[in-house]
């Protein structure tokens, strides 16, 4: 049996992924040995984790050249690209799973990006911060200012997030007629990326979930 504590490389990979709370939850949803495209893969922490633990055939797209350089330096297959403009070049069902983690809210056209995810992948995994989380509501209500939290520490004038949404907003988007996604799984997470294991309706997650992960697929005609 492999003991990660005795493997410095594996421990480093796990620690890098742990810095982003949702990555462990996403990795647990990916099938071993599958073909994966990670859009907006950043420094490649998730791809590296999936390659080591799930032996996936992983590819990545990253907007920043610095991120691409770091990924390539780790031996990951990553190209520079923009989710808003470059997904159109990928064929239908090109990957088993397409991942978009903490990026949808930073795209120019989130609805079109989501439609491409469902077209390119047999499954799409989307994670996002919940702007309906109760501390954010209180900051707006009592301070009258855009919220700043541990997980969203950047002020409004510097944040890359341009389309703020709540868990409930995203669920409604998946139901739009020209999206019409099938939701296979939805997980609410706390700020540390730990699953909130309570059976509750959407309004509860919309209030108490700090972030969320969704597994979707395209509804077949």
TrEMBL record:
It comes from the Bacteria. It holds the Pfam family MetW. This is Methionine biosynthesis protein MetW. It comes from Methyloraptor flagellatus. The lineage of its organism: Bacteria, Pseudomonadati, Pseudomonadota, Alphaproteobacteria, Hyphomicrobiales.
């Amino acid at each position: 049996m492999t003991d990660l504590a005795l493997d410095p490389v594996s421990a480093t990979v796990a620690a890098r992924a742990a810095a982003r709370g949702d990555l462990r939850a996403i990795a647990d949803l990916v099938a071993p040995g599958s073909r994966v495209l990670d859009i907006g893969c950043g420094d490649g922490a998730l791809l590296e984790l999936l390659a080591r633990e799930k032996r996936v055939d992983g590819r990545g797209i990253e907007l920043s050249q610095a991120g691409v350089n770091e990924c390539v330096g780790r031996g990951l297959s990553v190209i520079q690209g923009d989710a808003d403009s470059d997904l159109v070049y990928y064929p239908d069902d090109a990957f088993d799973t397409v991942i978009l983690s903490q990026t949808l809210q930073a795209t120019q056209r989130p609805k079109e990006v989501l439609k491409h995810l469902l077209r390119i992948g047999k499954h799409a995994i989307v994670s996002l911060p919940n702007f309906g989380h109760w501390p954010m509501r209180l900051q707006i209500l009592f301070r009258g200012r855009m919220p700043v939290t541990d997980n969203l520490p950047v002020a409004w004038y510097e944040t890359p997030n341009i389309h703020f949404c709540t868990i409930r907003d995203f669920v409604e988007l998946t139901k739009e007629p020209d999206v019409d996604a099938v939701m296979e799984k939805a997980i609410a997470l706390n700020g540390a990326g730990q699953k909130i294991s309570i059976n509750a309706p959407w309004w509860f997650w919309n209030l108490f979930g700090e972030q969320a992960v969704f597994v979707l697929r395209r509804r077949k005609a």
